[in-house]
Amino acid sequence: MICMEKRLRLFLLSFILSLLVSPPPRAAAAQLDPNYYANICPNLENLVRGAVVKMMSQTPVTAPATLRLFFHDCFVMGCDASIMIMSSDGSDEWRNPADFSLKAEGFETVLAAKAAVDGDPQCTNKVSCADILALATRDVVSLSGGPTWPVELGRYDGKVSLGSDVVLPSPDFNLDQLNGMFGSFGLTQTDMIALSGGHTIGASSCTFFYNRLYPGDPTVSPGFLLQLQQSCPNPLLNPNAFAFLDAATPLQFDNAYFRNLQQGMGLLNSDQVLFNDPRSQGTVNLFASNQSAFFSAFVDAMTRLGRLGRRPRSMGRSGGTADSLTR
Prior knowledge:
This protein has helices at residues 2-18, 44-58, 62-74, 104-118, 129-143, 175-183, 189-196, 222-231, 256-262, 269-276, 278-289, 291-305, and strands spanning 157-158, 203-205, 242-244, 316-317. The protein folds into two domains: 2-168 and 309-321, Peroxidase, domain 1 (Orthogonal Bundle), CATH 1.10.520; 186-304, Peroxidase, domain 2 (Orthogonal Bundle), CATH 1.10.420. The two termini are 25 Å apart. By secondary structure, the chain is mostly helical. Ca(2+) 1 binds at residues 73, 76, 78, 80, 82, 93.
């Protein structure tokens, strides 16, 4: 009920924002550029970061929720903020069951950052929601102890959001399935493993790994299995039951996720398979022993992920309509 109330609140807020009148779009950039807004909205990064800091001070859910929102957005028709579009007929990405697990705090972070940016007269209606989401994602990672990086900017917001377009990795995927899906976006196995390392923060509903608990997946550490069985006795009776994706340091962006995999403490099958399959085990071992190597690979993978679906002006909307989140 709480989740539904938050979703309704977001829908109403975005509906109000959609009533704002926006100027026509600017000419599309030839390519993404970290300095895209240097002369348009010079204080952009400080404005977004300030909003993110405030949101993170209110709830630890902000960081994983925003990071996951960015991934879900980019994996469906590219990084165009179409995940933020909420249609009156319920046909949008947001209402696809695969996106039901997205937390309201991620959406709220983007809306808060957008409000902060538009509060600067130099920036009003000039920055796309897609770019704000990309910046906010970088900031939640770095503020959680992870790396920082120059975010490439100049995206246009999508005009269309369809739940039928949503195809995301399943928590039950094996390595071939993971490589196949990520590879279809031009991402390598190393990219996929590094992006999976984003599971170093956040949690998962028991429904996504319940099938590993009973009678008990032999690849799960016995002690960890018992802990999970106690946390998730029956998700049907308690749909809000969850477990941290990184049981060691769930609020810290670090390489503990990979050390957990070495110990049979991967929460999802798609996590643990990265260590169990000899084709990917070497990369897991590298990231587990060398946090700098993980951070470097994560930055490279996030940069490539952020380039998915670059839209020319004819296919997208400028920053002026970035806050028009309903249609």
